[in-house]
Specification:
The protein is of the alpha/beta class. The chain has two domains: 30-107 and 215-253, Periplasmic binding protein-like II (D-Maltodextrin-Binding Protein, domain 2), CATH 3.40.190.10; 109-213, Periplasmic binding protein-like II (D-Maltodextrin-Binding Protein, domain 2). It is 44% helix and 24% strand. It contains ten helices and ten strands. The protein has helices at 2-28, 41-55, 66-74, 86-94, 126-135, 146-158, 161-164, 175-180, 227-237, 240-248, and strands at 31-37, 58-64, 81-85, 103-115, 139-142, 168-171, 186-190, 200-205, 213-220, 252-253. Strands 1, 2, 3, 4, 5, 6, 7, 8, 9 and 10 form a ten-stranded mixed sheet that branches. α2 (41-55) links the parallel β1 and β2.
């Protein structure tokens, strides 16, 4: 009986301590909202669960073109981390919306997409690229974002803007998806936005002399209530464990 009494006393003392530890662990867990450019979608969808498992924190991801997300932030949308094009991150830092400390995450070039199984056009040179677009029945890209703005300028420089007008389609959604479902014959977007679509194939990147790279950076919201978790997530994305994933998703780290 004495032994049982001692055990009961020990258990009685241990249970409150254990409950306190559980509650403490629950209190330490954080939930962060991340607003991110569509270009980094596949990378973050792979990396966020890894961070959640390692940290115990929850990551809620929202994706849209960087310009669209900047507008939402300017309008007062609540968030903890922004992962957007570097110029937009710099603008948000200048307006006090995010922490001045920013981390370079990845950069990506523009690729040309065709429907899976279709003949891939020759786009190895600037002249070949021009001819491929002129030969295509339809050409599409997303209207919003840095890539769309660059392509409009590129068509003018190449002297094919007027010839492309009848076949050009500005897409409201994913370019890879539009190519996969036959909405357009040739699509152009960030390479990382082509690879996830099983019905689309990467014909190749733009030729080096007309390629444009988009750089993405991350920063914590100035008003974040989970600043420590937000900064830990950003540090994780910039660390060595994330490099292989970023490269596998069609982007280059940094």
């Amino acid at each position: 009986m004495k032994v049982q009494g001692v055990l009961a006393a020990v258990v009685g003392l241990a249970l409150p301590l254990l409950a306190g530890q559980i509650l403490a662990g629950q209190a330490q867990a954080a939930e962060i909202t991340v607003l991110a450019s569509t270009a980094v979608k596949t990378s973050l969808e792979a990396l966020a669960p890894q961070f959640e498992k390692a940290s115990g924190n929850k990551v809620n991801l929202t994706f849209a073109p960087a310009a669209v997300l900047k507008e939402k932030i300017d309008q007062g949308t609540s968030f903890d981390v922004a992962i957007l094009t570097t110029p937009i991150i710099e603008a948000l830092a200048g307006s006090g919306k995010i922490d001045p400390a920013r981390t370079a995450i990845a950069h990506s070039g523009i690729g040309v997409a065709v429907r899976k199984g279709a003949a891939k056009p020759d786009i190895g040179t600037k002249e070949a690229f021009k001819q491929a677009l002129l030969n295509a029945k339809s050409v599409g890209f997303t209207a919003a974002g840095a890539t769309g703005a660059y392509l409009k300028t590129l068509f003018e420089k190449l002297g094919i803007a007027e010839e492309l007008k009848p076949k050009l389609k500005l897409l409201p959604g994913a370019t890879g998806e539009a190519v996969a479902n036959g909405e357009v014959e040739v699509g152009m977007t960030q390479i990382s936005e082509i690879l996830p679509h099983a019905g689309a194939e990467l014909a190749g990147p733009l030729p080096p002399d007309i390629q444009s790279y988009t750089y993405f950076s991350a920063a914590a919201a100035a008003a974040s209530k989970e600043a420590d978790a937000a900064k830990a997530f950003i540090k994780f994305l910039g660390g060595p464990d994330a490099l292989a994933v970023i490269k596998a998703k069609g982007m280059e780290p940094g």
